[in-house]
Amino acid sequence: MLLRKVAREAHDQDIKPEQLIIIFKQLWNSLAESLRPQNADQYELVRQRLVTLCIRAYYAE
User: Fold this and answer.
1) Are the C-beta atoms of 50 and 24 separated by less than 8 Å?
2) Which of 51, 49, 59 has the alpha carbon at shortest distance from 11?
3) Domain interval for residue 40
4) How many CA atoms lie within 13 A of 43 on its CB side?
5) Burial of 20 (0-12, 13-18, 19+ CB in 10 A)
6) Which among 1, 17, 20, 34 would be 20 to 30 A from 8, CA to CA?
7) In 10 A of CB 54, how many CB atoms?
8) Spatial CA neighbour of 19 closest among 49, 60, 55, 56
9) pLDDT tens digits, residue range 2-56?
10) How far apart are CA 43 and CA 45, in angstroms?
11) Cα–Cα distance between 19 and 10 in angstroms, integer?
12) 3 Cβ neighbours under 8 A, 6+ residues apart
């Protein structure tokens, strides 16, 4: 999964998880502007789930 690869690379490059999440959210928000989600609640739920997966991947061994 791409998210795991990104998280692992961030971890290997000593990027703090907080920094990774900020970058991820910025990218996600830029997508939100271009996609104009039909259901904002659903879009936010997906974002939250992806952030959780990103954190788990960052700390996975």
Assistant:
1) yes
2) 59
3) 2-59
4) 14
5) buried
6) 34
7) 20
8) 55
9) 878 888 899 899 999 999 999 888 888 887 666 666 777 888 888 899 899 989 9
10) 5
11) 9
12) 50, 53, 54, 57
DSSP summary character for residue 51: H
What is residue 37's predicted lDDT score, i.e. its pLDDT? 63
pLDDT of residue 36: 63
Q: How many CB atoms lie within 10 A of CB 7?
A: 23
Give me the number of domains the chain comprises.
1
Query: 41 to each of 15, 16, 48, 53, 58, how far by Cα in Å?
Result: 30, 28, 11, 19, 26
pLDDT score recorded for residue 30: 83
Identity of the residue numbered 38: Q
